[in-house]
Structure formats: C-alpha cells, structure tokens
Amino acid sequence: MPIVSFRLISSLIFLVALPCYLTANAQPKKELNFNSCELSTLDGRGMLSALCADWKQPIDPGDAESTQIDLFVAKVSSVSPNPNPDPLLIINGGPGASSVDLLIDLAGANVFRRILHKRDVIVMDQRGTGRSSSLACPALADNKIQITDTDIKLLTKKCLGQLNYDPKYFSTTYAVQDIESLRIALGKDRLNVYGVSYGSRVAVEYARQFEKSARTLILDGVVPPTIALGPDIAIKSQEALDLVFKQCRESVACNNAFPNLDEKFWDLMARLEKHPVNTKFRDPRSGDPIEVEVEKEHLALVVRMSLYNPELRSLLPYLIYETSLKNDFSRIAATATQLLDQLGQSISNGMHNAVACAEDVPFYDEQQRLIKDSKETYMGSDFHQSLIEICSEWPVGPTNESMKQVFTSKTPSLILSGQYDPVTPPSYGEQLASNLENRLHIIGEGQGHGLISRGCIPKVLSDFMEDPNLENLKTDCIKHLKPVPFFVNAYGPSP
Questions:
Q1: Sign of the CA dihedral 417, 423, 427, 428?
Q2: End-to-end alpha-carbon separation of the chain, Å?
Q3: Cα 9 to Cα 376: distance, rounded to the nearest angstrom
C-alpha cells in the first residue's frame, strides 16, 4: 500500500485579485462574542481552556455584501485584573497550518506563563485553515493511493471542485486585512505580533500595510518577503543534512558508532530507488498491521522532518545506520506514514496552494538555477516541479507588488533563527534584519525550526513586550541553548 508520491508530499509544506486596501477608519467594527470553550488540536492532541468566538467576515474585505466566511478566534485571558492593552497575536506557518493548534501546543509547553501575567494572548485561524472556512482538499490528502506525475493536475482539478470557496480570496493579502479587522473588533490600538515560518510573512505584511497597528514584531524562522519559497528548500535541507554528516564525523563517539554515515545514507537512497521494499509494521495507535512499499521518498520525508527538530535530528545517525545495517525499513515506514497522516490533518492543502500559487510559484523564473541545483539533493527537484504543475491549474489573481519588496520598518523587531534550521536558516533572518532600523537577531545554537518554546526564549519574549527598547533587553541566557548530542545507540548519547 504505497503512500502518496513525494512530489505531492513535498508540496504540502514549505514554509488574488488585487484588493483595495481598507484603512482602519473605513472598516466596520464587528463585535466578538466570546464564550468559554475547551480546545484540542485538529488531530486530538492537548486540551486548553479558553474563550472562543465564531466570527463572520466578508470573503472580499472590500465588498461587505460578498459571501460571508467563518473565522475562528480564541483568547487566553491574562491573570491580571488590569492587563496591558496590547495583546500578543500568534500566527502559525505552513502555509495552511492552524494558529489555534499552535496556541494549544505552546500553552502546553508553558510558553505564555510570563506573558499572561501582563497581557492576553489572542489567536485566529487564518482564513482557509483549521476552524476558519478551511480549504482542505480530501483529494490531495488521501495517502492511500499511488500518485503518478500525470495525476497531479487531475487531482488538483478534483480538489478545486471540492472547495466551498473561491481560493483567490485566501492569501496573505486578505489574511492581514482580517487581522486588522480583528484588532478593531477587539477595541485594541495595537498588537504585539508573533509569526513563525510562513507566519512571519503574514506578520511582516501586516506591519507593512498597517504599521501603526503593530507595537512589536517577533519573527521566528523568518521568510523574507523577497524569497519565493520552494526553489532553495531542497538545497537548504541538503546543507542541513550535510552538517549532520560533518558533525558526526567530528564527534569521536558518533563516528565510532556510525563510520561513513553519509555513504550509508546515499546507499540506502540508491537501493530504495532501484528496489522499493515491502515492509510490515503495526500502527502505534491501533495496533493494526500495516504494509507499505517503502520508496526513497519515504526516507527523504523522514530525514527532512527530523532536521526541523533538535531532538529528532540527534536520532538521525542512529536511524540511518540501523536501517542500513539490519536492512529493516519498518521504522522508516512507520515514521513516514505517521508524518504523512499528521500533515494531512494539520495542513489545509488548498490554503497552502492558494498562497504558494499566488505568492511564490510566479517568481520561480528568477530562481531557475536553484531548481537545477536541487536535482543533486536528497529531496531532488520534484518539490517545486509538483507545485508548478499544481499551480498551472490553480486560480489566482495578481499579487500586491509591495509584498515581494524589501521590508523596512521602525517597529521594534525581535528575529529568531535556529542555527541548524533546514528551511529558514539564519541567513534568512539576517537578510530581513539588515533592512530594519530597530531590531535584534537571535540565533539559537544547535536549534532547528522555531525557537519560541526553547530554553529562556519565552522569558526573552515577555521582557521584550514589556520594554520594546532592544538596548535594554537581556539575552545572556540564550548562550545556554546547546546542540542535542547524537544518539550512539538505542539508549541515548555517549555518557
């Protein structure tokens, strides 16, 4: 039972018609009616007590008479009887991931403990994601079928037929107008805005279009507006994997346990490309037996997603070597299948396509060299080729020209990058920071994609929002962030 082709898997993750931008004065104030609620993630993880509101907005913010869409808003109230008037707004990435799910995960990790002493935390699932008029496509989420290259366009057409809304209205351009409408409905003069991964693009565009509404920016795993996501993802991910190989060679314990690790990996990829392996394993949740034909794309998916997280990254040498030594692909099969299920549940693939096809793929012509170079990586060039094929069928309008221009701002901005981030490396953060007047770029040693829950970062964020003067911000605690040592066997790192 092979899973969906990597061409389609890869297009799920990166990360319109040109509207008439509305000013704050022109937008009607629509009140939010919050009620107590219990939240869990879309895939059933976690639980969070909050205040929730179902909020209707026109699909076209410039036309109050256009079709209404449902937007879902959640709030975790400050413990203070007199909270600061500027809440923290959380924006997730993807594109297509639920911001409410991110809120639940971060709350579970106690990220907001200090912040909630002084201010509320607000989240809204971006239109087209999660609980906000989702653009999920069952046709593209089905992992029980084998997808050939020629099927991608047909599946894309089927997906479009399953959507309840015109995808032209589901882009960053419209998302930032929803945020501004939300700010007005909340009765807030300004927001502190946190965006992670693609969410950083939304945060930047919001600050560009509504500069006076953004009190501070916290940009985590930065996507600079001048970058078209896709062409260099495979290259950056290969660089991150090569760094794993290099660090393993330089570690006595890792090199003794896993000599010639890079050769073992490329041998596995070649073997699977030539002869996929039928593998059986048991579903970790149900215990039911599952049979999967493991291809090189399964291994590539596991490697790619492991590079995002320092703890999973530390397991890669052991996983690669054990798989090669024992010729047992059951762990790869189980992990890849689980990852694909999670992606299918957590990413609104129609929303992802709406953003990528409007804001990224049209700019690929300028990055053809990167596409050519990516063919030599473990991910290959199928990542962006699949997006190109999808976008050839996807309806989009013109993108606001300013969105792809260099972002300049005086807004106090805290930029976070993980040293080993395989998709939004520190160079991206530095590129964005170089054009900001009032910014600080923090690079977390040994960290991957997204720093908000790591070490003392929650305290740094809280301090920053209390006093946005970056000269006063103490960040010495960041030096305590360290790489997670490689596992050398099933019991963990070398003592």
A1: negative
A2: 41
A3: 19
* 331 vs 492: CA distance, rounded Å: 17
Say what the pTM is.
0.91
Domain-embedded: residue 179: yes
Domain hosting 115: range is 22-229+402-480
Half-sphere exposure of 450 (CA within 13 A, CB side): 21
In a domain, 48, yes or no: yes
Q: Residue for token digits 């070597």?
A: 321
Phi, psi for 146 (deg, rounded to 5): -90, 125
With a CB cutoff of 8 Å and minimum separation 6, the contacts of 21 are: 177, 209
Cα distance between residue 210 and residue 207, in whole Å:
5
28 band by pLDDT with thresholds 50, 70 and 90:
very low
What span, in angstroms and rounded, lies between the C-alpha atoms of 42 and 125? 12
By DSSP bridging, strand 191-196 and strand 88-91 are parallel
User: What's the CATH code of the domain at 218?
Assistant: 3.40.50.1820
Residue 222 lies in a domain: yes
Q: What is the pLDDT of residues 426-473, one digit of tens each?
A: 999 999 999 999 999 999 999 999 999 999 999 999 999 999 999 999
**213 falls within a domain:** yes
**What pLDDT is stored for residue 115 in this prediction?**
96
Domain count, the chain: 1
